[in-house]
Amino acid sequence: MLQSKSFARKTKQGKVVKVVREHYLRDDIFCGASICKVCDSSVARLSSSASAILIVDTNVVLNQIDLLENQAFNDVVVLSVVLEEVKNKNLSVYNRVRALCSNSLRKFFVFSNEHHKDTYVKAMVGESPNDRNDRGARISNFLYQLLSKDFGKSLPLDVNCFIMPKAHWQSAFLFSVESYVKSLGQPDLLDLLVHPTSEDLGMEEVEDLRPAKRRVIYSEHKPMSEITSGLHRGIYHQGKLRVNRYNPFEAYVGSESIGDEIIIYGRDNMNRAFDGDIVAVELLPQDQWHEGKSLSIADDEDEENADVHLVPSSADDAPRNMDLVQSSAEDVKPISCRPSGHVVGIIKRNWHSNCGSLEPMPMPAGNGGVAHALFVSKDRRIPKIRIQTRQLGNLLGKRIIVAVDSWDRSSRYPSGHYVVLIENDIDSRPFSSQVLACLPPLPWFVSSEDLANPNRNDLRHMRVFSVDPPGCKDIDDALHCTALPNGNFEVGVHIADVTNFVHPGTPLDDEATQRGTSVYLVERRIDMLPKPLTEDICSLRSDVERLAFSVIWVHASLFLTISTRYTKSVIKSCAALSYVEAQARMDDSRLMDPLTTDLRNMNTLAKIMRLRRIERGALTLASAEVKFQIDTETHDPLDIGMYQIREANQMVEEFMLAANVSVAEKILKYFPLCSLLRRHPSPNKEMLEPLLRTAAAVGLNLDVSSSKALADSLDRAVGDDPYFNKLIRILVTRCMTQAVYFCSGDLSPPEFLHYGLAAPLYTHFTSPIRRYADVIVHRLLAAALGIYKLPQLFQDRPQLSSIADNLNYRHRNAQMASRASVELHTLIYFRKRPADTEARIVKIRSNGFIVFVPKYGIEGPVYLTTRGEKGGGQWLVDEEHQKVRKMDGSISFSVLQAVRIHLEVVEPQPNQPKLQLTLI
Fold it and tell me: CA 187 to CA 390: how far, in whole Å?
């Protein structure tokens, strides 16, 4: 059946044209229910044992996505018109819903109501697209007959009971989200409910104790029409809000319209904006701009004592009550007035789930045992968030995840809801029986069929070896380097062939898709795949035959690539070396055995490759990676120190980078629109500004016009201090953007650049045991070689983009979990071992400075005086030159200066220990 759809569209020239499109309607689109007597049950997605089928509308999906992702919700119908509207309103939520609908372990079904002749809704004269979609969501009699005839009732969820007129429903079919969740008999699910802003009144009564004291705290946000007009007229300025890591009352908005950063002082001027929000800012009158003022380091108690109108930058408002004053014009050269402003509107929110802990509020539990609490994020840039929970006793003292719902003008804190009790949203649950059923039986051996496969080369005769951290069991890469008779070298990178065991669409693949990455903590590993795969079947252990995916080059002695080939293979590693063992072999001139010779040849080639990369503009950066020595019995840390990088590490890294680049070129050639690549965006001016200011303060001129110019500047940044160059490189690392995965069809080729590697193309291929991105790339490469057909997923670019977004999210969370593990073990170590050590000042503030401790890889604030201290002396701060000194000139400190500090663990609040750094 053919229908015509017409709509008006405005052209770039401003003309309004009528567009008419053909719209085909069918009568063979099925409802997805397995016991339906009308539809073909062979294509059913909904379970036959369902007691109810849930039909969700747009508001439910947008507001209650955390609920829908809970395992308690299954047999859910999502209308195609709802999915489209969600996509237009919130792409992040859309991607999460699509992930649910494509997950074979969840019973979510998309019903194409737009293309069924009995459910298609024509637009009425003068009706907006959203109003038409709302009518389309009120499903016609057809879907009701299918779903209610056999199940007795179908329950449409909604954020409010009355969004959809009851005239379209039998009253027995209409449920609110809250009433349905209550019917499930799982009180903990009620904590996931998102309540409308209008329901905030009860929380305000908790905060202010008396409803009559409700007051407007923040300015009303301007509507988008006014913001757009103001931006065009130059009244407002758009940019991303960046909150100071050490002072949540200080923020900056980089504005291209004025070519400078706009400083936002205090919570009232931030006007409910979060770090990362795209905001519209109005400049304050110039007499309110700040001249020569440096903000303080905020202490833990400042949040409690500060009103939203606190401006902690001035001496009068210094949050630690310190006796600090700003330098006068006679003392130091003043900083010119810096533009200051206030947020007038939010253009794009950056709300996401946050990890932290709860503080109970001093009020009795409400109805139904509901308690009120303040959530304190581990990230100090996030304000406290109010939540209601029925599980307060269980959640106190634990790490939880909380999502933000709203922030009312009359509320000091934003409102949110508890999501999960898993730190950094890391899934550490045991693998399900369905997942484990996908594994081959143990013991596993390479079969005769594997060896006879024409797509798999037998490379067992090659001298293959691996080089990894000590104790590594999930070995996913190995190498070989063979000197050829003509003086050239054949070099191979062999990667565990994980996709031979992880097949698309299986429960094992779905689980790996969701987990995204393995998580490496100080004393444990949370695997993306079950241990039989990671430590046995796929692990390229020594002296056992294993399946691999190999990239093999033939190189001339100066690393001129003569040829590159890709092949599935069978290998047998002759040695599984640690970095220390490999380095010892290369350094021992007495050893001349074939394996050591291969290592030395490979290291020579790696040095040439590394030099070539640096010449192209690749950055050599540094990080504060920490290594612990753990007691095998108590699991407590015995020692802590910076991780040492050896030539053996760099050798392996160089060939992994080369393999990733080669594979990126191959897959993009064959699949230009659906390749999964990794990009590293260039840092913008605002990100580099703190680095340039610090460098200038120590007389260092860094050229940041390109990665090559920056790399050359870093090479020249040397001095008498042997640690100076490494410290500068650490500071540069912190100014970089985050590298991310993306679908090649979503961006243009110039945006593919990996800034840090100075590579126009890059991907991840070399770690499929621990990264799902590499699994996807293995499938792309196999399809490019004609070994397998490309899975159906790659025809769905939105779904591939959704997977890339999830991989980025999981990668960031894994990094945060790893850092949290390091922080925890650092606290455990110093709790019994207070220490004095050397630190370097990396940032000057009005009431102290931020230091980095090279020996332990620790960074933290050092205060010049303690809270309430009398007679501590007055300090002069020169922010431009990054110096601070006492009025009498007896003591002075400058950025990058070495200082002695004392490290000890204190507990200012119960169950919240922290590492305190004190100046000696």
Answer: 7
- For residue 235, how many other CB atoms are within 10 A of its CB? 14
Contacts of 849 (CB under 8 A, 6+ apart): 297, 841, 842, 843, 861, 862, 864, 884, 893, 895
Q: Are strands 883-886 and 892-894 parallel, antiparallel or unpaired?
A: antiparallel
Whether residue 668 is found in the same domain as residue 717: no
Last residue of some domain: 380, 396, 421?
421
Q: Is residue 295 exposed (0-12), middle (13-18) or buried (19+ Cβ within 10 Å)?
A: buried
Residue 891 included in any domain:
yes
The token duo for 420 is 């999960």
Which residues lie closer than 8 Å to 107 by C-beta, 6 or more apart? 45, 46, 47, 50, 74, 75, 76
Residues 100 and 638: their CA atoms lie apart, in Å, by: 44
Interhelix angle 91-102/80-89, rounded to 10 degrees, is 140
For 260, the domain range is 195-290+337-421
Q: How high is the pLDDT of residue 316?
A: 30
Q: Note the pLDDT tens digit of each residue in 396-418.
A: 777 777 888 888 888 888 988 87
Q: How many CB atoms lie within 10 A of CB 733?
A: 15
Residue 741, both tokens:
């995965």
Which residue matches tokens 């990667």?
495
Q: Which tokens sit at 637?
A: 């840390």
3-class SS shares of the chain: helix, strand, coil, % to 5? 35, 25, 40
* pLDDT tens digits, one per residue of 642-660: 667 788 989 999 999 999 9
Let me know whether 650 and 692 are in one domain: no
For residues 93 and 32, is the Cβ–Cβ distance under 8 A? no
With CA atoms as reference, report the closest residue to 221 among 168, 277, 286: 277
> Do 459 and 439 fall within a single domain?
yes
Secondary structure E strands in 654-735? 676-679
Q: Report residue 824's pLDDT band, with 50, 70 and 90 as the boundaries.
A: confident
Q: Which of 655, 495, 650 is nearest to 579 (CA)?
A: 650
Half-sphere exposure of 514 (CA within 13 A, CB side): 25
DSSP 8-state assignment for residue 240? E
Peptide bond into 443 cis (omega under 30): yes
Tokens of 538: 């796929």
Tell me: the pLDDT tens digits for 760-809? 999 999 999 999 999 999 999 999 999 989 988 888 888 888 889 889 98
3-state DSSP assignment of residue 888: coil
Whether 117 and 219 map to the same domain: the answer is no
What 3 state SS string does 545-583 have?
A: EEEEEEEEEEECCCCCEEEEEEEEEEEEEEEEEEHHHHH
| H/E element, 510 | helix 507-515
